[in-house]
Specification:
The chain is an alpha+beta fold and 331 residues long. The chain contains eleven helices and 13 strands. 39% of the residues are buried.
């Protein structure tokens, strides 16, 4: 059985981990990236697409399992992604939920997780807010607004630039003051357990660049993600975030069957009172896991060996095959 993925995001980690677990590997990539990926010996086969419809055909031609990541739906679009016919690791039914910010926040709220207050309309804004676009755009287009006037102005700009069609396409959340922490988890149906696989913070331009020149440059902050930085949390924070994770998995099991399978992330702000506010989730492997190709401080606690999330995915697949339970970890 072949492990395959789309050439972007965390493809190197995914395929490196698959090779470590003994699987042949295939990458589906656009022509402009083929030369880059050929630099890595753990990639066995290359399938180069000419257009996005061709990419789906090439994905479906692989005899194995596709590992999704954050760029899959963002590149192919939800309709093409739903036309993928080979087994996908994890829950493909989450894709449509992840592409809708309101439905994402509904899942978090139903889990009893503390989330920022949301505003249905710019007219309702009465405090500093952050306005976000749907999908995995790496923070592109996000902006802060201190009042309804600034919010309307920014939303109109997004419409003019064709990032969105209407104000209904954005999510408006209160801006919670604190530090961002992105908690990476892996839910294993094979072991029936939530594993903390790591955490990170995102290096965002230009909001992080403005810290170097406070009060000097009159520039609006933006939130385009350029990289990730490792972080370890105070151990006293972990019981609360595990409680959130367990609730979230149970809610998805009830509302988006079969629920979370494999890697996911709860994206949070930790306040000065050490409250954890979850403002977003990702239902697949996140780019911050690329920090830990040799394993994170947390993955070592479970496995006592180098275990990236990419390798953890293939370890789950391998054990599932051995137990004749591949259907429990793929959809």
């Amino acid at each position: 059985m072949i492990v395959s993925t789309l050439g972007s995001h965390s493809a190197l980690q995914i395929l490196h981990g698959a090779k470590k677990e003994g699987f042949p590997t295939t990458i589906i990539t656009e022509n402009s990236r083929e030369n880059f990926y050929r630099r890595f010996s753990f990639i066995d086969n290359f399938r180069v697409y000419k257009n996005l419809d061709d990419a789906v055909n090439l994905i479906n031609s692989v005899d194995g399992v596709l590992i999704p990541h954050g760029s899959l739906v963002e590149y192919l679009g939800i309709q093409r992604t739903m036309n993928i016919s080979i087994p996908i690791f994890g829950n493909r039914n989450l894709f449509s939920w992840e592409s809708n910010q309101q439905k994402k926040m509904y899942l978090l709220k139903q889990s009893g997780i503390r989330i920022p207050e949301s505003f249905e309309s710019p007219e309702d804004i009465d405090r500093l807010v952050i306005i976000k676009l749907p999908g995995a755009k790496g923070g592109k287009g996000y902006f802060l607004a201190k009042d309804k006037s600034k919010a309307k102005e920014g939303i109109n700009h997004l419409i003019e630039e064709k990032y969105i069609k209407s104000s209904d396409d954005v999510i408006i959340q209160e801006y919670v003051t604190g530090i961002p922490m992105y908690f990476q988890f892996f839910y294993s149906p094979i072991f029936s357990r939530n594993e903390l696989t790591g955490m990170d913070i995102r290096y965002e331009t230009n909001v992080d660049g403005l810290k170097r020149v406070p009060g000097i440059i009159n520039t609006e902050p933006s939130f385009v993600v350029a990289g990730n930085i490792p972080v370890v949390a105070r151990e006293s924070l972990l019981p609360k975030i595990f409680d959130y994770a367990d609730r979230f998995v149970e809610t998805t099991r009830q509302l988006v069957k079969p629920g979370i399978v494999g890697p996911y992330s709860l994206e949070t702000i930790v306040t000065d009172e050490l409250d954890i506010v979850v403002f977003e989730f990702s239902g697949r492997i996140v780019a911050g896991t690329n920090l830990y190709v040799d394993g994170s401080p947390y993955s070592w606690l479970y496995w006592d060996e180098p275990m990236s999330v990419g390798r953890r995915i293939s370890r789950e697949i391998k054990i599932a095959v051995q137990k004749n339970k591949l259907g429990d970890v793929t959809t």
